[in-house]
Task: inverse folding
């Protein structure tokens, strides 16, 4: 496993396991346990995923020492603001049954970001949160938060996949000591990703799947990845990406797939912001 050093001084596994949309508690618990058994040490969840309790049970069942695991969760929009975020952190710790979190993220770049960040800085100072960061922040929002805060974000988790590569955003993060992390690395299979002849040909050359080719491409960009699967065979396949390397020309081939447009939605769309404001969860 590759590890990357964050600006907090902590080491983060470059490949982890995400649990977005694994809604059934039993399925989520079994999937996380299988992932840990397969060698994953980074587990990424969120309060809004409503599966933190299942993740916590899997962690306890795994028997892996806590210090060997890197656990991430996130605060949702409804809990933005200083006092709300303090309570949200405590609730996540209770659901996960953990004493500390390796990484805590602001899930969406809306509402009282600075109030939440002050709460996160406070928990960071006490080492309840070992690293703090954000998700879905554009360079201007990252700069705003960094310039006017005491602690800079350690991570920014954003959509990065072959169709939306975010070269400028990734370069900006790396130049400013913020670790880029990818969600939707496979674009949820959109644009026929898994059947593209160019990626299938690369997979045939290296004896790898299209998913492994995409993950390797991201890893070579020094991006953290968190692929999700409930299939143990695919989990094992997704983590098996450290024994080959794409050439510069092959990386260039994938670069040519970039459309410059999100496969899902724009976080700067006013209508999306209005919609997100109304999305509440029982957390």
Result:
């Amino acid at each position: 496993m590759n590890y990357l050093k964050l600006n907090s001084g902590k080491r983060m596994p470059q490949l982890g396991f995400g649990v977005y949309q694994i809604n059934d508690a039993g399925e989520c618990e079994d999937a996380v346990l299988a992932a840990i058994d397969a060698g994953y040490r980074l587990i990424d969840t969120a309060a809004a995923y409503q599966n933190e309790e299942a993740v916590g049970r899997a962690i306890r069942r795994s028997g892996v020492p806590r210090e060997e695991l890197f656990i991430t969760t996130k605060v949702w929009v409804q809990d933005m603001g200083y006092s709300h975020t303090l309570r949200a952190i405590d609730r996540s710790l209770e659901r996960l049954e953990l004493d500390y979190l390796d990484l805590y993220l602001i899930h969406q770049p809306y509402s009282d970001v600075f109030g939440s960040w002050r709460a996160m800085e406070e928990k960071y100072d006490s080492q309840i949160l070992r690293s703090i960061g954000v998700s879905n922040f554009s360079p201007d929002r990252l700069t705003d938060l960094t310039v006017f805060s005491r602690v800079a974000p350690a991570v920014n988790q954003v959509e990065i996949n072959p169709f939306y590569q975010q070269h400028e955003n990734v370069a900006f993060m790396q130049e400013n000591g913020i670790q880029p992390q990818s969600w939707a690395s496979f674009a949820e299979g959109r644009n026929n990703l898994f059947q593209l002849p160019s990626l299938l040909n690369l997979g045939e050359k290296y004896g790898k799947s299209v998913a492994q080719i995409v993950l390797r491409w991201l890893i070579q960009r020094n991006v953290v990845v968190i692929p999700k699967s409930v299939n143990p065979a695919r989990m094992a396949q997704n983590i098996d990406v450290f024994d080959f390397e794409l050439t510069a020309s092959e990386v260039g081939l994938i670069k040519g797939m970039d459309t410059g447009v999100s496969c899902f939605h724009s976080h700067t769309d006013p209508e999306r912001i209005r919609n997100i404001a109304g999305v509440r969860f029982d957390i």
Notes: The beta strands are 3-5, 11-13, 17-18, 42-44, 70-75, 103-106, 132-135, 155-159, 179-183, 224-225. The mean pLDDT is 97.
